Amino acid sequence: MGIIKGYKFIQDNMKSQNGNTEWKLKQWKKHKGQLIMCESGFHASKTPLQSLNYPYGNKWFMIEAKGQIIRDKDKFCAQEMRLIKELPTKKISVEFAIACAERCLKNFEKKYPKDKRPRQAIQAAKNWLKNPNEENRKKAESARLAAWSVAESAAWSARSAAASARLAAWSVAESARLAAWSVAESAAESAAERKWQEQKLKQIIIKE
Length: 208
Known about the structure:
Elements: E1 4-10, E2 29-30, E3 42-44, H1 48-51, E4 59-71, E5 76-87, H2 89-111, H3 117-130, H4 134-153, H5 156-173, H6 176-186, H7 191-207
Antiparallel strand pairs: 1-4, 2-5, 3-5, 4-5
Helix pairs in contact: 2-3, 2-5, 2-6, 2-7, 3-4, 3-5, 4-5, 5-6
């Protein structure tokens, strides 16, 4: 089998959360012994959206894998792996959360045309993305709290917009790992929406 590409998170100290592997960019690591999913071997996900289900650290990388490989629904386990490029976790997470929130904002504003709190939360996240200073971070946090109250009280048909807007602003304030987790939690269950999210996230990553 040839080389395949994927995505994985590791900790700030360049070690995997599970095990003692210490990673270095572009350096191949080879696992000795049997591959067992979730227990033994080097793990990653095929797509960036799938990898958001496993934010085991603040550092997010594109990887390559080769040798023996076993696969699961949203991850795989490989005999050999290396990190090939680090991704700016928080920046990508915020930008992706904004895109998801804007996609469903019309549902909320159709039902609640006078309530601008989700739109304001989205704009606060955009402002931080453009200029990530402390003042804009605090404004995003305030907008998140406002959007939270909206999401709790909104009708189900409109709730996803408010929740996604809250997550966009929340991603600004939290660690990179939690930002990625928040985006994963907001992912829609429908196949069509999942496909859109996969494509959008890949587009954002390509720009980096």
